[in-house]
C-alpha cells in the first residue's frame, strides 16, 4: 500500500463545476503532476482538482508509486495487469467523486504515461468512471471493441521514445471507427512528458 497522500490542489467553497483527477506515471508521485493540476485549476476556479496517489508502491523506483508493476511486462501480459489494478483505480475515482458530490459526466481524469493507460482503459468499463479522459503520452493496453461513453483527448509528443506516438494514433483510429468522441494532438519535438505545448493544445480542445 502507498503511504503517500493525494494532493488537493484546489478545493472551492460551494457548488463545484467538475472534479479533475490527475493520475501520475509509474515510479512517480502526485507531486509530478502538479504543473498539470495547476493548469486545470487556473482554467476552472470552480473545479475540485486533485493529484492522486496510486495505492501501490513501485517495485522498481524506491519512494515512487505505480498503478501496476512493469517488471517483466509484455504486450501479452499488460492487459491482465491493468485489469487486476482497475478495481483499485475506479474505487479511487469513485471515492473522490462521492466526496465532491459530482456526476460521472462532470468528472475528468487526466493521466500521464501509466496513469494515462489506466484512464484510457477505464473507458472500456460498463460503468466508466469519468465523462472526459485526457491521456498524456498514453495508450490502451488493448484497443476497445465498443464505443466508449467518455470523450477522449489524446496528447503526445512525436519524439516520445518511451511510449511511441503510434499507440495514440492507433487509439484515435480505433475510437473514430467506433463512433467515439476523440481528439489527437501531436507536438513535434516533445518527448515523454506532459509538456506545456501539449497543455496549450488541450486548452483549445476544451474551449
End-to-end C-alpha gap? 38 Å
Just give the CATH class: Alpha Beta
Order of helices and strands: EEHEEEHEHEEHEH
Instruction: Please count the helical segments.
Output: 5
Strand order of the largest sheet: 1-3-2-6-7-8-9
Number of domains: 1
Supply Rg.
16 Å
Assign the structural class, choosing from mainly alpha, mainly beta, alpha/beta, alpha+beta, or little secondary structure. Answer: alpha/beta
- The overall pLDDT, averaged over residues, is 96
Range of helix content: 25-40%
Look at the structure and name the CATH superfamily: Alpha/Beta hydrolase fold, catalytic domain
Would you tell me which CATH topology applies?
Answer: Rossmann fold
Question: Any low-confidence stretches, pLDDT <50, length ≥5?
Answer: none
Backbone shape: globular
* Strand content range: 15-25%
Instruction: Please give the number of β-strands.
Output: 9
Pfam family, one: Abhydrolase_2
Family: Belongs to the AB hydrolase superfamily. AB hydrolase 2 family.
Keywords: Hydrolase
EC number: 3.1.-.-
Amino acid at each position: 500500500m502507498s503511504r503517500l497522500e493525494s494532493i488537493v490542489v484546489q478545493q472551492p467553497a460551494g457548488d463545484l463545476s467538475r472534479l479533475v483527477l490527475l493520475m501520475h506515471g509509474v515510479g512517480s508521485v502526485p507531486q509530478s503532476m502538479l504543473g498539470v493540476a495547476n493548469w486545470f485549476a487556473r482554467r476552472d476556479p470552480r473545479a475540485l482538482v486533485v493529484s492522486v496517489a496510486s495505492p501501490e508502491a513501485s517495485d522498481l523506483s524506491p519512494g515512487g508509486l505505480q498503478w501496476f508493476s512493469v517488471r517483466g511486462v509484455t504486450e501479452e501480459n499488460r492487459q491482465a495487469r491493468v485489469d487486476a489494478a482497475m478495481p483499485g483505480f475506479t474505487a479511487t475515482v469513485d471515492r473522490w467523486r462521492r466526496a465532491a458530490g459530482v456526476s460521472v459526466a462532470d468528472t475528468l481524469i487526466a493521466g500521464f504515461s501509466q496513469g494515462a493507460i489506466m484512464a484510457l482503459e477505464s473507458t472500456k468499463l460498463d460503468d466508466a468512471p469519468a465523462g472526459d479522459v485526457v491521456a498524456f503520452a498514453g495508450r490502451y493496453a488493448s484497443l476497445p471493441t465498443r464505443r466508449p461513453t467518455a470523450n477522449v483527448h489524446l496528447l503526445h509528443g512525436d519524439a516520445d521514445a518511451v511510449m511511441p506516438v503510434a499507440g495514440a494514433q492507433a487509439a484515435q483510429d480505433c475510437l473514430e471507427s467506433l463512433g467515439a468522441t476523440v481528439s489527437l494532438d501531436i507536438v513535434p519535438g516533445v518527448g515523454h512528458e506532459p509538456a506545456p505545448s501539449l497543455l496549450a493544445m488541450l486548452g483549445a480542445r476544451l474551449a
